[in-house]
Amino acid sequence: CSQRARRFEPKKEAVDLSVIISLGCCENMLFGMGNPLLDISAVVDKDFLDKFGLKPNDQILAEDRHKALFEEIVKRNKVEYHAGGSTQNSVKIAQWMLQKPHKVATFFGCIGKDRFGEILKKKAEEAHVDAHYYEQNEEPTGTCAACITGDNRSLVANLAAANCYKKEKHLDLDSNWELVKKAKVYYIAGFFLTVSPESILKVARHASDKNKIFCMNLSAPFISQFFKEPLMEVMPYVDILFGNETEAATFAKELGFETDDIAEIAKKTQNLPKENTKRQRVVVFTQGKDDTVATVGMVTMFPVLDIDQNDIVDTNGAGDAFVGGFLSALVQEHALEECIRAGHYAANVIIRRVGCTFPEKPDYH
Known about the structure:
This is Adenosine kinase. The protein has 14 helices and 15 strands.
């Protein structure tokens, strides 16, 4: 059953947020865990791209030949640093949408004990995110270099320390686990399945046992293709699943859904086995400029905000921004429709700017 919707009665269609206190947001209410990266943006020339074998508009993982790139790019003029990585971007956007109080969002991830790690801590603090990093000496802080030429961005990610998160050395510590218990809504991008699936499971089971809301993201086609086993181990605990149309199609193929219809994939995903039966799973699939598909009882289509193609600067952070906006409404007990509206707004702001950056305050009502 599919329909277009602008309005529907919150009583019937609202995500069940009865577990969330109705006194508004408080510190550490939203918990995120993932791969923290320091985003380093700089304008470069064609010679720089050629030197490191980069295409003008691309996204790659760093290889040995790119190691010198990260030290060289910081010597350029007008280097900008931002706290990055998919989950950290989303909780940062959620905090920006909420504005006050500060530190509504907690974030866990692994960094190195180095200069980039110090910058990342400072940037997370400036974004008013309560980041508690596991710091180690084996690997340097993860970085993502954005090499800008004209309107193009060539992204080179070096996960490094982000790959080194250890459950027993960080998540299991009493002081850190207390922060997990304090939260009411949890969000982890699928990328973290490649790092610490056991950490994800511990958080997901806690959320399920305490009837809190656990959200996850399919993140990229390769997660469903090559990390299907840990993904499906977590899936019974997922209350809200995010993804885009490409990720949804790959997920459907891997699970043998035998359909490429996005609404049908959402419905089948909603009906996968679930531990906490007190709340039906919500599935939210974005489709770029096309309608967002969401399940809540029935499959519903939500039109995105109109934007002139000439105003689109960079779509890289759009998915993270959508989730961040959605989470900012979710922690305020808003109905699903309102969560999606907030997600659409945040994504619309971010695609007008370079990187996952935003103005000082949202213009959202």
